[in-house]
Amino acid sequence: MKSKVLVTSNWKEFKLEDLFEILTPQQKFNAIDIVDFNGKYPYVVRSKTNNGIKGYINQKEEFLNQANTISFGQDTATMFYQNQPYFTGDKIKILVFKEQELNIKFNDNLALFLIPILNKAFQNFNWGSSSYNINILKKIVFHLPKNSKNQIDWQFMEESIKQTKQEMQNIINIYKLLANGGGY
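Above: the chain sequence. Below: its structure as tokens.
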């Protein structure tokens, strides 16, 4: 498989607040107080594993965070796309994509493209740092591809992730074929 090089020299600079509204959950649920993690809705914490999901809980649905957002662990800079409504633990912010303002529907492909870029922008922050307060978060700078009209190239991002997913599926299919004694 041929490795591709992503050219970023003509990408455009943006701030987090250009793409996302940063919300604080209406209600935070402390893991110490939860006795049953076999509920209906994901409980997202600052973990770096399992999409940030510690388990599933049942709480008042009025306190659910909306689906199709990015959970942001405020003092760990852990970010995960959440495709369904969820509850959160302490120090989680909710990144809500500005769909109407940007005239594009947010989805898992865009999230998969954006999260590594955002992770890179946060790489120099320290765990537990006050650097993660909301006013600083809004001003975090990162770069995104632009199209010939000098606008964000959403199509490029979507197609890049779709292509990567297809390549990974092809590898999985080959592995399954070989694991089952098939030839290559």
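The mean pLDDT is 90.
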